[in-house]
Every structure is written in structure tokens, then in C-alpha cells.
Design goal:
The structure holds 2 protein chains of 2 kinds.
Chain A lengths: L2 E5 L3 E2 L5 E8 L8 E8 L6 E7 L4 E3 L7 E6 L4 E6 L8 E11 L2 E7 L3 E5 L2
Chain B lengths: L3 E4 L2 E4 L5 E7 L7 E6 L6 E5 L3 E2 L7 E6 L2 E6 L8 E7 L6 E2 L3 E5 L1
Parallel strand pairs in B: 2-11
Antiparallel strand pairs in B: 1-3, 3-8, 4-5, 4-9, 5-6, 7-8, 9-10, 9-11
The chains are: A mainly beta, B mainly beta.
Chain lengths: 122, 107
Amino acid sequence: QVQLQESGPGLVKPSQTLSLTCTVSGDSISSGNFYWSWIRQPAGKGLEWIGRMYTSGSTDYNPSLKSRVTISVDTSTNQFSLRLASVTAADTAVYYCARERRVEWIEMFDYWGQGILVTVSS
Amino acid sequence: DIQMTQSPSSLSASVGERVTITCQASQDISSFLNWYQHKPGKAPKLLIYDASNFETGVPSRFSGSGSGTDFTFTISSLQPEDIATYYCQQYDSLPFTFGPGTKVAIK
């Protein structure tokens, strides 16, 4: 059974960089045809896809966040990470990591973490 | 970006009742649509992929249909454990986008 678990600071000051890690267990992060993604949900709002990374190193980011986002994968620790620079209160949200499975033309988030609340406040 | 809308935003139904949620895309997305169930404090769960295909282990009371811009998600007989928020999500083009969710409660 694949499991994902987010970790990182729950409080970040404005203008600083938010850094989160997702630990994958139950399978190797470098196996299979998978992307490793981050998704967030501000309180009372919908889900927003942040971006993804393939184990080859290729990345895709939401254009609305692209200038501030970096996603990286560490196959040696079976983890992947999110860095979001220059945060503001608008970045306060529950952040989820997720595995995206691709089968031919079909793409789906088949495993998610439980989410971690990150608050941006001084 | 492709905009996704869902209706209703919330609903209340009796145990055993049939529940239907609709999802509409702002442009043709063929069948490139998934449905997720999200319970508070839990990881979201994939139920339906490619508009109408069951993820492994998902009860058969859940189903999906549609193509193009209009999609439907159905719970054929609502159970107490189905209390959750349900989201549609398109993967026709990046950035992936989600519907605003439909909160399902027991009457």
C-alpha cells in the first residue's frame, strides 16, 4: 500500500520561503510511470494544482505560481519537496502531496497525503 | 485555464437514496475527468477516472458518466460512510483544475 506523508513548518513568515517534504512509503519513488505533485486548498476554497515533477527531472508548474515554485525529487530518500518563495497570506492553505499515475492518455491522482496546514503570518 | 463548475454545492439525502452531482467544463475535455471523495482530515480518494472507470476497490454504488463538457457522478444508494465532499478534476490540459466541490450530508 502506497502512502504519502507531508511534513514541514506549519507557520511561515510573509516574504519567506515555504518548504515542505513528502515522504513516500510502500513503493520506490523512481519506479513506474508516475508524476509527483503538490496541490493546495485555502480555507473555504477549492483545490489548486501547484505543479509536478517526473523522476526524469522534468517539471510542470501552474502558471499562476510558476515564478515562485520549485518541486524536486530525492530518489535516495524516497521523498519529494515543494518550495514556494515570497509567500503572502494568500498562500495560507492545506498543502497536499499526491502521486499522479499515467496509463496511456489517462492521468489521475491515485494516492494523496492527508495534508498539512501552512499558515503565513508574522 | 479550463474552469470546472459543480452543482449542487451541497446536498442532503436519506440513506438509500440516489444522489447525483453534475460537473461542467468550460470547454470540451473529452472524457478526461476524474472524481474524488474527500473526508475531513483524510487524504482525498480517487473514485472514478476517465469519466466512467472505477478505481480498484471502489464500491459499485459509485458511478460516473459524460463526455465533452457535461459529466455526472452518481451514488446509487447513499450510505452513512459516503458523507464527504466530492470533487471533479480535468486533466485535458495543464494546469489541472478541480471543481469547487459538492458536500454530501445525510438527511
